[in-house]
């Protein structure tokens, strides 16, 4: 292993990117030889060299998704996962370079990451919505809402219904809003929900309802426990109702049975309690 394939720095993203661009690009013959070693012999060092030599392409693709407001290191990490999947599936006899084959896998992992993390509420769930999510921005020719003609044009270009375009445009126009707001003094933004939603926790009727509910639950639990035989009751109390819970093996020694038998008794007693509490 040469110094070109040395471990990349991970403490700083600029140092990581700089290190990735220092790794030489493989020639077609080198790439084919390494891919064959991985395919035929499961050579992990060959796989590592294939991945590292293509990190610059992952970085280049990841930078194209910075407009979604997600951290570049995370985008690069997800893209690298896609690259690893591509390396594992790459077939050198197909006559295609790895970089061409891997682009799909790199983008797919980055897309999945963006869809999981871009918003608290998922904006794209169906296949048509996912397609729109990554094409709608580039399809806009101006700021503001689409006209009817633009909606129909985008729908035709992307092969989706006009209604789907309108729904996704509305979703992308909305923003997540923190319950307590932020720390800025900007009075022009929308009010945080904490400023206008009432706090019902200390409202007298709600307080009484919670106390009555807890009292009823305790009463029913004690009644259900008293309906168990002494051994089952002791096991449940030792396992769930004390600060220092006993293990199955400790209870097995206490009752002179196996730990599996204690587990069975516990399971049966818990089932009995649930049935009585659901009445």
Report on the architecture of this protein.
The chain has 14 helices and no strands. With 279 residues, the protein is an all-alpha fold. The relative contact order is 0.05. The model is unreliable at 1-6 (pLDDT under 50).
Radius of gyration: 30 Å
For the report, how would you describe the main beta sheet? Answer: none
Number of helices: 14
User: Helices and strands: which structural class?
Assistant: mainly alpha
The average pLDDT value, as a whole number, equals 79
**What proportion of the residues is helical, as a percent range?**
55-70%
What's the count of strands?
0
Beta-strand content estimate: under 5%
| Uncertain segments | 1-6
Shape: extended
Order of helices and strands: HHHHHHHHHHHHHH
Q: What is the first-to-last residue Cα distance?
A: 69 Å
Keywords:
0% strand, 279 residues, extended, 63% helix, 14 helices, mainly alpha
Briefly characterize the structure.
The chain is mostly helical. The chain has helices spanning 13-22, 28-41, 44-52, 55-63, 72-89, 98-117, 127-133, 136-139, 148-158, 162-173, 204-226, 230-240, 248-255, 259-277.
């Amino acid at each position: 292993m040469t110094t070109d394939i040395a471990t990349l720095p991970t403490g700083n993203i600029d140092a990581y990117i700089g290190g990735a661009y220092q790794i030489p690009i493989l020639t077609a013959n080198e790439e084919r030889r390494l891919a064959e070693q991985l395919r035929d012999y499961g050579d992990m060092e060959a796989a590592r060299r294939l991945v590292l030599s293509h990190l610059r392409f992952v970085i280049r693709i990841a930078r194209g998704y910075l407009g979604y407001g997600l951290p570049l290191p995370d985008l690069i990490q997800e893209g690298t996962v896609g690259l690893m999947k591509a390396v594992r599936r790459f077939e050198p006899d197909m006559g295609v370079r790895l970089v061409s084959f891997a682009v799909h896998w790199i983008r797919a992992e980055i897309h999945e990451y963006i869809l999981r993390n871009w918003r608290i509420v998922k904006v794209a769930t169906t296949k048509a919505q996912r397609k729109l999510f990554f094409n709608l921005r580039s399809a806009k020719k101006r700021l503001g809402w689409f006209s009817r003609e633009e909606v129909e044009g985008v729908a035709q270009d992307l092969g989706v219904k006009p209604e789907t375009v309108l729904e996704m445009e509305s979703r992308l126009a909305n923003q997540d809003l923190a319950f307590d707001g932020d720390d800025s003094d900007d009075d022009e933004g929308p009010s945080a929900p904490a400023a206008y939603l009432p706090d019902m926790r200390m409202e007298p009727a709600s307080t009484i309802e919670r106390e009555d509910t807890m009292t009823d639950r305790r009463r029913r639990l004690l009644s259900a426990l008293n309906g168990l035989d002494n051994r089952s009751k002791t096991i449940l109390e030792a396992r769930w109702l004390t600060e220092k819970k006993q293990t199955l093996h400790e209870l097995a020694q206490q009752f002179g049975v196996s730990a599996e038998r204690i587990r069975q008794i516990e399971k049966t007693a818990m089932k009995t309690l649930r049935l009585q509490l659901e009445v």
